[in-house]
Amino acid sequence: MHSFASVIALANNVSLPNVAKMLGHSSTRMTQHYAKVLDQTILRDMQAVEKQLSV
């Protein structure tokens, strides 16, 4: 759940410190681990999901 929440949040330009707070992380160090997963492929896939959900 954490990785899904952080990927969605980070993909929608929520700041890393804010994502860390949302997930209950005491620092951004753990959140940075999730942020490394984001690349253009994931962003493209998330945009496709968002488009499907808004239909």
Look at the structure and give the mean pLDDT.
Answer: 80
What is the first-to-last residue Cα distance? 24 Å
Q: What is the strand tally? A: 0
Approximate shape? elongated
| Fraction in beta strands | under 5%
Radius of gyration: 11 Å
* Largest sheet properties: none
The level of helicity is over 70%
Work out the helix count. Answer: 4
How many structurally independent domains?
1
Which parts are unreliable, with pLDDT below 50 for 5 consecutive residues or more? none
Q: What is the SS-derived class?
A: mainly alpha
| Helix/strand order | HHHH
Keywords: DNA recombination
GO biological process, one term: DNA integration
Organism: Bacteroides fluxus YIT 12057
Protein name: Tyr recombinase domain-containing protein
General description of the model:
With 55 residues, this protein is an all-alpha fold. The chain has one domain. 71% of the residues lie in helices and 0% in strands. It is built from four helices and no strands. It has helices at residues 2-11, 16-22, 28-35, 40-53. Helix 2 packs across helix 3 (28-35). The radius of gyration is 11 Å and the shape is elongated. The model has no long low-confidence stretch (mean pLDDT 80).
State the gist of this model.
The chain has 55 residues and is mostly helical. The protein has helices at residues 2-11, 16-22, 28-35, 40-53.
Keywords:
mainly alpha, 4 helices, Tyr recombinase domain-containing protein, 55 residues, 0% strand
Topology overview:
Layout: H1 2-11, H2 16-22, H3 28-35, H4 40-53
Helix pairs in contact: 2-3
